[in-house]
Design goal:
The C terminus is likely disordered. The protein is globular, with a radius of gyration of 23 Å. The chain has a domain of about 170 residues: MetI-like fold (Orthogonal Bundle), CATH 1.10.3720.10. The longest helix is centred in the C-terminal third of the chain and has 39 residues. Helices cover about 80% and strands about 0% of the residues. With about 270 residues, the protein is mainly alpha-helical.
Length: about 270
Amino acid sequence: MKMTRSRIPLITTILVLLFFYLPIVVLVINSFNDSAHGSVWDGFTWRWYRALWEDENTKRALVNTLLVGFASMTISTVLGSLGAWALHRYNNSLLQRTHTGVVWFPLMLPEILMGVSLLLFFGAMGSGFGPQVMIFAHTTFCLSYVVMVVSARLQDFDDALLEAAQDLGATWWQTTWKVLLPNLAPGIMAGALLAFTLSVDDFVISFFVKGPGMTTLPVLVEGMIKKSRTPKIINSLSTLMILATFLLLISSQILSGNIFANKRAKKGKV
């Protein structure tokens, strides 16, 4: 007797994909709609992108977002990679187990509590809410994600490679640059990309710690929606952010592929 395969999993998958991606597709289509309202299609146009390019508030918010994103990504990647290595190397002591809990705590803490606590902290310190404050605030939560990603990469790392390199006469710096970092590079790049994406996408913490002239794109979009101002510009801005995200993901995959290809080529020569 021939059994009939159920189509329920396929139908469920299609419905879930539609639920997640159909609103994004509608948003992208409406960014090219000549109509001021998304319910009617009045023809293809680029005028919303031109209006977005001429909007000075959006340009300032973009500069602030990129500044905070790259700065917090750089700091959190360096500190997170070092922290992940320290936790991997010396995870037997009570102090390091406590350190692990402290690092993972921001991942479980609600974001609004982090925003309020950072607001109260910097307010009590009497520091102005400028770019340094926002960079520090974004680094606090991006750091934990970098540690998580690099630690996952370290789970498959063989410590015997470092001992073998040192037995063959390599110094610690040579071992780090030629053995450790090439093996951890995919995890470090993935952590850096995740940190940058989270920083650019963050709204709650940015809303609490933003100061005069430090509006980021998520905060700007929220204000534009609340005031119902130029909704088509929001569609154009969101489309460009989606495109930038895809380009970053593709670039990371290409870089990771090149690293693995170089490793295989070196092994083949050996």
